[in-house]
Amino acid sequence: xxxxxxxxxxxxxxRCKFPLRWCICAGERTIECPLAIDVLIxxxxxxxxxxxxxxxxxxxxxxxxxxxRHDLPLNESAIRRQERELxxxxxxGEPLPTRAPSAPPQVLLLDGSWREAARMMHGVESWxxxxxxxxxxxxxxxxxxxxxxxxxxxVEALLFLxxxxxxxxxxxxxxxxxxxxxxxxxxxxxxxxxxxxxxxESSIREAFSEILVDLNRxxxxx
Length: 222
What we know:
alpha/beta
């Protein structure tokens, strides 16, 4: 019978926040990206191991994270980078520009539930250009109920943007980090069948074969 070490309250890794049994830090690979990336993370999201906003900040060291709280005002000067055009990714924005920008923009990602992201959007929409992405196909983010077709995780929004702008190497590297994150999350919940189905369609089987062997190594019950 499968066990969820998440529900069992197992000790967690300080960095990835997964239970130590399913820590994925050994698979972490640093990604350099031309975009200036900032993630506005709702305070409820910050401590969740399923947060893909925090995943972005871990694997793209030049990115920055900012915590959103209802009771604290947003500091525009601490988030906006004056030398870059600011794109705020949100489904209610204008379509992605058909021409690539002359200089890589600053991208602000909103990390939280759909309701939380809507509230954050209202606080920052006057700072720059709201941009929506041509996102299609099923989400690979199986750690949350995405609340309907066409809804994606924060890191998937960044993946779509990287592909649309032609940064395919960065897209491929980030995709691997994301899929390892999802796989470990499913295993940590005891959802072994779902994890194996997910893995069968993922390139992490080859990219992280040794790490997957170690993750699946039998361990004594705690």
